[in-house]
Protein 1
Amino acid sequence: MNETAALRPIPKAPGYVTAALRIFELSVSEMLWSRRTIFMALVVGAPVVISFVLRALDVLGAPVFQINGARMAGPAIFGLMIWVFYLRFTVPVLGVFYGTSLIADEVEDKTITYLFTRPIRRGAVLVGKYLAYLACTVFVVLPSVMIVYLLIVPMRGSLGGSFIDLVVDLSLLALGLAVYGAVFAFIGSVFRRPLLVGLIFIFGWEQAALAFPGYLKRFTVAYYLQALVPHAMPNDGVISLIQGLFRDTPSMPVSLFCLVVIWAVFLGFSANAVERKEYVLDQ
C-alpha cells in the first residue's frame, strides 16, 4: 500500500498562464460584487444620465450647448464628453481605484496568504487579478460610451460620419484602462498607501507635467493617450488652456509604441515586485 502511494505521480503545479487564468476566473465575480462596483456604476452612469437630459432638452427645443447663437452639433458634444468625462476622469480614476487594490485589498483583508500558499507563481496571481480588472472595467465603460454616442451624436449630427471616431474612442479608452491599470498595479504592489500615491499621480503629477513645456510630460500616460484622441481638446479651464498653449503632440506610432512599452514594463515590474516582496499582515 505504501509502495503504491509512493509510486503515484505527484500532480504538477499549473503553468504561469493557466494559473493566471484560474485567478482571473475567481476574481471576476469577486470584483463585480465588490463595493467598488457601486463607485464604478456611478462614474460611468453620470455621462449616460447627462446624455439623456441633453437629448430630452433637444427634443423639447431647448438651446443645448449654444455658442454665439449657434448650437453645437452632436458629434462635437460627444467629443467634449469623451474628453471631460472619460479620458480625463473615468479612465484614470477607475485605473487608480482598481489597479492599486489588486494586491492591497488582499493584504488588508488578510487573504493574501491563501493565494500565496497555493502551488502557483505569485506573479500569476497579480496577472490574473489584473485581467479581471480589465474585463470588468472595459465591459462597463465601453457600453456606457456607446449609449452616450447613440443619444448625443444624432443631435444635428450624422451617425455614419462619426462612426470611425467612435471605434477609435472605444479602442483608446480600452488602451487607457490597460495602461493605467498596469501602472497602478505596480504602485499597489510596492507602496504601503497606494491609493494616495495613485491619486497624487493622476491629479497632481500628470496635470502639472502637462501644463508646462519641457520633457517632463513624456513621463506621463496622459501625454501619449491624449495624442490619439480624434476630437479637439476643450478649453474648459485654466489648466486646459495652459496645456493647449504648450501642447506638444507626439505622432500616432510614437504614442502607441510608448503606451505599449509603459504597459509591458509596469505589468512586468508589478509581477516581479509581488514575487519578491514579503507582505506583513497587520494584527
Protein 2
Amino acid sequence: MRSVLGLALALVFTSAVAQSPSSRWSEKQASEWYSHQPWLVGSNFLPASAINELEMWQAETFDAPEIDKELGWAEGLGMNTMRVFLHDLLWKQDPSGFQRRLDTFLSIASKHHIRPILVLFDSCWDPDPKLGPQHPPIPGVHNSGWVQSPGAKALVDSSQESRLQAYVEGIVGALANDSRVFAWDVWNEPSNTNGGAYGKKELSEKQKRVLDLLPKVFAWARSVHPSQPLTSGVWEGDWSALEKLDPIGRVQLEQSDVISFHNYSWPEDFEQHVRWLESYHRPVLCTEFMARSVGSTFDTILPIAKQHHVAAINWGLVNGKSQTNLPWDSWEKPYVLQPPPVWFHDVFYADGKPYREREAALIRELTGHSQE
C-alpha cells in the first residue's frame, strides 16, 4: 500500500521548494527532497502508435486510449515514473492545445500512480524536425523517425532564442507547482553529434552552439520557480571529477539540482559510474539504461540501482513504430530478413505480453508490486 504520509511530506516539501529563489538547489535541499521520494523505476515512454515525440503529441495523432493502456501495463510492474520527451515546435504550433494534451497525459499517468520526468530539448537523431504527418518507420532500423529539439535551423539561428525561451518558460511555468511532474530534464545528451546516423546533416558548430544555449535553458527554467528539480544527464566520458568532463558535461553537472546519467554497459561499469556520481553528494538518477545485447539488462542493473537508491529508467516500454527492439547497428545493417537474436530495448509486445516473463517478475519483485 502506498504511503499517504510519505506523499503528504513530499507535497509539503514541494510547496516549500516552490518559494525558494531561482538558483540551483543546495546539496542539502536536493537530498531532503529525494528522501521523500520512492525508489524510481520506469521507462523512456513513447506509445507504440507514435514514431517520435511529434507524432505522440500533435492533435491529429495524440492517442490517449493507447497511452492509458500502456501506462496500465507499466503500473502492473510497479513502475512509478516515465521519461517523456516534449518538443519546441509543438509549443510554436499550438501552445494551448499542447498544454491541454499534456494535461491529459499527466492525468492518465497520475491515475496509474506514475510521475513523469519531462524532457525539454534533445540533441539525438534527425536534426531536421518538421510538424505535420511523420514518415513511416524505415524497415529494420532502430528509432528511424526520432527528431531533435531544437532542430539544426533553430539551433544555429540566434534570432530564435526568444521563441525557445518562451517555450521553456511557458511549459515549465504552467506546471511549476504541479505535483504530477517529478522532474525536468532540460536537454537530452546535449553533446551528441549522431555520427552513425545523421552525422553528415549535423551542424559543424553544433556543440559550440549547444554550449552557449544550455546554461540559458537552465536559467529560463529556473526563472519560473519550478518546485521540481532540474537535471541533464551526462552520458559519455569520465565523470570522476569535474575537471575531467568536457565543457558541456561540466555545465550539466554544475547546473543540475539532481544528477542524472545514461549507461548501456556491463553492471560493473554501471556501478563504477554510480560511485563517481555519488561523490557529488546529490541524488542520482539513471535516466537511460537497458540494452540487452551489449550487457545492460534488468537482471544485472536493477539490483545495483536499488542498492544505491539510484532511479532506474530503461529505454522503451512497448515495442512499436520506433522499433527500438532493434539494435543501434541496424543503421548500418537493417534487420529486414530476420530479427536480432535478442531484443535490444523495450519491455512489452504491442499486445501487452512481456518480452521476457522473468524480467517482468523481477521488476515486480524489486518494486514490491508482487506483494501488493
Protein 3
Amino acid sequence: MDNQNTSNSKDTIPPKEENSVLIPKIEVSDMAPVAVVKETTESVLKDFSKKPTSEAPKAPKKNKKIIKILLGVLGVFLFFIIYNVISGLIIYQKANKLIDSGKVLAQAATSQDLVKMKSELGNTNIALKEFKGAYGLVAWEKFLPFVGPYIGDGSHILKAGEAGLSVGETVLTVIEPYADLLGFSNGTTSVLGVDSSEQTTQDRINFIVNAIPDLLPQIDAISEKMKIVQSEISEIDTDKYPAEFRGIAVRSKLKSAQDLVSEASTFLVNGKPFLESAQYLLGMDSPRTYLVLFQNDKEIRPTGGFMTAYSIMKVDKATFDPTISSDIYTLDAKYTPTIQAPDPIINYIKGPYVLSQKWRLRDMNWSPDFATSMETVIPAITKAGITNIDGIIAVDTHLLVNLLNVIGPIGVPGFGNFSTEISPKCNCPQVIYELESFADVEGPIIWDPLTGKIIQRPPNSDNRKEIIGPLMNSIMANALAQPKEKIPALMQAGFTSLLEKHVLFYLMDEKVQTAVSDFGLGGKIDQTYENDYLHVSDANLGGRKSNLYAYSEVQQDIDVSGNGTVTKTVTITYKNPEKQDGWLNSVLPTWVRVYVPKGSELIASEGLDKTQDPYEDLGKTVYAGYFQLRPEGVSKVTLKYKLPFKVSKQYKLLIQKQPGTDGFLYTVNLGKHTEEFFLKQDKELKISI
C-alpha cells in the first residue's frame, strides 16, 4: 500500500541508486530563445559546409598537374633519346661510308693514279654530302649545353672538309696537263711531245718552270679555299677533348690536323711570291751566279754547321753548272782579317786567334739569323776575290743523305762509291764517314806567329774538302737523269730539306730575298712575333765532329699565375751516347745561346761552366754560356725566367729550329696540358688557359 502511494505521487523523488548519474533538472525559463538556438545552429552548419568545398578538392588538382608535367618532360626526354639514337645510327652509317671512301682516295693518291684520284675524289665528295645531310639531324643541338660545343665542332669539320675537297679538285685540274711530267700514271699524253721514258728530270724542270706564269692565277683560288679550311679548323678547342679514347689518340690527332692545315695555308699564301721568283732563281730571264756554301752540321754552328767548303755555281734556264769548288781554308787564306771576332770564338777556338783576334772568314756564320751572318760574309768573300754573285745558297749533309736515299748508290770519278748504307766504322751513313775521313786528316797545323800563315800542316789539309764539289756534281747529274717514277720521291726529298732548314738562301735582289724569306727558306729569326718565343742556338767550338752523335732534349715548364704572370723553366739536356774515338767523337765544347722574348727577366741559371750577362740581339733577350759534353755523357742546362708580359685565355709560343739540326725532342708542360714533338721545322703552339 505504501509502495503504491509512493509511485503514484507526482512529487516524490525516486530513490538514488548507487553509481547512478543524476540528470539535472532544466527549467524552461533557463533555456535560450528558440530563435537564437536556430541561428547558432545554422551558423555552425554553414561554417562546417564551407570547409570541405574550399580545401578538400584543391590537393588532387595540384597533384594531377605535377604528374602531367613530369609525364610531359619524360616523354620529351624519351623522344630526344630515341631521336638521337636513330640519328646516331644514321650518322654512324654515313660516317663509315665517308671513311671508307677517304681510304680509297688516299690509296689512289699513294699510287699516283690521276684518273683514279679524280674518280675517288668525286666519290668522297658524294659521301661527304650524304654525311652532311645525316649530320643535319643533330646540327641544331649545338645550342644545347654540354654536348653543344662538340656538335658545333662537327659542323666546323664538315665545312672544312667541303672546302678541302674543293681544293683537291682545283689542284687536280691544275696539275692534269703536267701529270706525266710529275710522275703521275694515267695522265695526259706527254706535253713535251716525246715518249715519257726519254724525258729526263731536267726536261720536266724546264717545262714546269716555263709553265709557272700560267699556274699563278690558280694559286689565289686555292689559297682562298685553304683559308676557309684553316678558319673552320681553328675554331675547334682541342683541349676539351680527351687525350685518348679506347686507345685512340684523340687530342693529339686533332692538334696535328690543325697544325697541318695551318702550315698548308701559310705555305700557299707565301708560296705564290716564291713561285713568282722561281724564274729569277733558275735564270730563265738571264744567267745567275751563286756561291754555294757547304756547312758541316756534324760540327754545328749557328746557321747550320762549320762552313767547310764552297762552290761557284752558274744557273742558266734551269740548267746547273758548278764551275769551281774548293776548301774554305783556301778562300780564307785570300782574306786579310780586319774585324774583331766575337769573344766566345777568341776564348774557345783559340788556334789562330791566339795570334790575332781578328775574325776569320770561315767563322763568320756566327749570327743565328742567316741573312745577318751573310751580310758579314759577303764583304769578306769580296775581298777574297769572289764578286758578281746573285746570292748565297747554304746546304748541309742532310741534303746529301736525303737525295742519295732516293737516287741510290752513286760513283764519283776519282773518289769511289757513295751511299747511305750505315757504316759500322762510325754507326753513320757511309757517305758521311767518307766525307769526314777524307776531310779530317790528323796532324798539327802550325801558324807563323808573325805573318799568321800556316807553316806546317798534315797531308791534304791544304784542300781537305775537295771531295765535296765532285760529289755534289755527281749527285746533281744523277738526280737530273732520274726516270719519272722517282720524281715524286726526289721532289719530296728536296722539299723536306728546304722545310727543315738544310738549304738556306740569301739573295742580293731585295724583292726575291723577301719572297724566299717569307717562304721559310731564309733562316730568319722572327723579330716581329709578340708572344712567347724560344730559339736554342748551339756552336761547336772544338773542331771535332761530335755533333754526329750528340743530341739534345728541350723541356719547357710553364707556370701561369692567377694574374697572368708567366714564369718559365727551360731545361736543355745534352746527350752523347757514343764512346770517344779521338777522331769524330771527342769532348764537345759548346757555346749555347737561348733567345727569349725581349725584356724577359732571368731568375736562375744552372749547368753552364761560364755565363755571359743577358743581352739583346735580333729583337730578343739572350741568355748565353759555355759548357762541355763528354762522350757517353750527359750535360744539363736549366734557365728560369719571367716573361715581360701577362697572358689570359690563350698562351702562344713560337719555337724556331736551328738550321742543320735533326729534329730534337721538345716537351711543353702548362698545367695539365702536355705536348711532345720532334722539332723538324719552326712550330707555333696555342694552348687554352
Protein 4
Amino acid sequence: MKLFRFGAPGAERPGVLLPDGARVDASGFGPSSDWNEAFFAQGADGIAKLARWVAAEAGKAPRVPAGARLASAVARPSKIVCIGLNYRDHARESGAALPGEPIVFLKATSALAGPEDDLRLPVGGEKTDWEVELALVIGARAKYVAVEDAMAHVAGFVLHNDYSERGFQLERHGQWTKGKSADGFAPLGPFLATPDELPGFASVRLWLKVNGESKQEGTTAEMIFDVPTLVSYVSRFMTLLPGDVISTGTPAGVGLGHKPPVYLRAGDVVEYGIDGLGQARQRILAAE
C-alpha cells in the first residue's frame, strides 16, 4: 500500500495511492485519520483495516485534485534519526574513515516539508548541500530490538533529501544537528510504501540532479550498515516510537565532495528519486 498526505500546511489530510494511480482522499477512514503515531502504532492491524476500507470505500471516496499540494508523507513524528557516512563512496569523498559503528544524529522535526515544496535557504547559510536518502518509518515500538526482528518494526519506506548547511554543520562547533534542521530540510515523499511494495529495498537505485545535471547515482546495496542493523542499533540508545523516521545515509556526489565544493544557490532546482518510491523536486529560494 502507498500512503500520502496532501493539503495546505497545517491542514493536511491523509490519502491512499491506488494501483491504477488514482489518489484517494482517506479522511473517511476515521474521525481523526492521519498517518501519524496513533495510526502506525496499530501495526499490521492498522494497515489491514485501511486495506479493508480501501476495498469497500475507495470507489466512492473523493479523489485528490490534481493540483493539490503534497505534504510530508507522514505526520510530524517524535523524532527524525539520521545516519551519517553510511555509504562507502560517500565516506571516501568526505575524507572520512569508514565508521566502525553507525554515526547517529537527530534532525529537528520542524524541518519536515512536502516533496514539491520550495526550499528557502537559511539566513547566514552559504553552503547548503543535498543528500538523497532512503528513509524508513517505524511501525511497532522498538527498544533493544535484535537484528533478526528489526523488519517487524518497519511500517514502510519513503524518499528523503537530508538537506545540510555545511557551514553550520562543520564550522560552527558542536553536533551536526544545527546544520541539518532548518525549515524545509526534511522533505519526505511523495508517498510511504509499505515493505511489500518495495521488496528490493536493500538494492534500490537512488539518484539526484541539480539543474538537470546528474550529481548522485547509487544503490542501497552500497550501505555500510543495512536497514535491519540500523533499526536494531538505534533502538539500543533510544526508544523508537511508531511514526519515527530513520534516514539511512546518502551515496557519493554531494556538493561537499566536489573539488572544489559546490553548493546550492537561489534559482537552482533539485530533482531526485528512488526506484519504487517516486521522485521529488525543490526550487531553491533566497534567504529572507
